[in-house]
């Protein structure tokens, strides 16, 4: 599994910056690059954003170190990528802020609550795949991070697809998986049930199992915990294939483990990556993340 070694942060030579203001350096062969020396809370020029966007498509995940965001500047930075999706999970909104989700295990008086704010996130998934237009990107800002645990795992669905045997590619290329928020919430780790709004606005929806990336045209395995069944297949056979795909995707050779440092801002491409939260001691340590989600397009 690829990990970022804190002592020797870059296993690769740093990419030469064209402008002298910031550098983008890959963190390993699986995915990911660090952006160093950029203040992402400031408005970006078109040229700067183009460099960042190109790196985002190439590396699929970017980590901006040492950022100082306010809620407003995090929203502005997110808007570079497109319109934000509102948060709909019950109990996760603060003071009418619907564009930012504050995911924390801190109580109102700042003590560890002993509860993980989103147990569903511990299952491998890709954000909002239960929508007809799933999330394109998610941004997570580490306001306070635990000293041990609470890492986020990311799996590269493109690499996983490319590594499949040819006959398996031919099998999955024409298939759709039906994604359902009702299904994933009911089979989760005891997280909140789907809201009436979610059920009404987002009935089960088909997405290609070997999804083509709209920008690069490359296919990725696309399923995760919201994938309920395979269109036109029996439930049992569909479940078997979906489980087989997830077992394939989460192999160490496709996975990057992000160890959070305070004030990291990580953005990832949900069209081709899976992710899963890992546990930490919610009774002793605080983990507070600000989260924004960028709406994506249709998947067909
Ligand atoms: C998310 C998510 C994982 C984590 O924000 O969509 O799944 O480690 N987070 O907090
Ligand atoms: Mn998620």
What does this protein look like?
The protein has 300 residues and is an alpha+beta fold. It has one domain: Clavaminate synthase-like (Double-stranded beta-helix), CATH 3.60.130.10. Helix content is 21%, strand content 24%. It has helices at 46-59, 71-79, 157-162, 166-172, 181-186, 196-201, 235-249, and strands at 2-3, 23-26, 33-36, 61-64, 101-104, 135-144, 152-156, 176-179, 205-208, 210-212, 219-221, 227-230, 255-258, 265-269, 273-277, 288-295. The strands form four sheets. It has a seven-stranded mixed beta sheet, with helices on one face. A four-stranded mixed beta sheet has the order 1-13-7-15. A hairpin with a 6-residue loop joins strand 2 and strand 3. Mean pLDDT is 91; it is low at 6-20. The structure holds N-oxalylglycine (OGA) and manganese (II) ion.
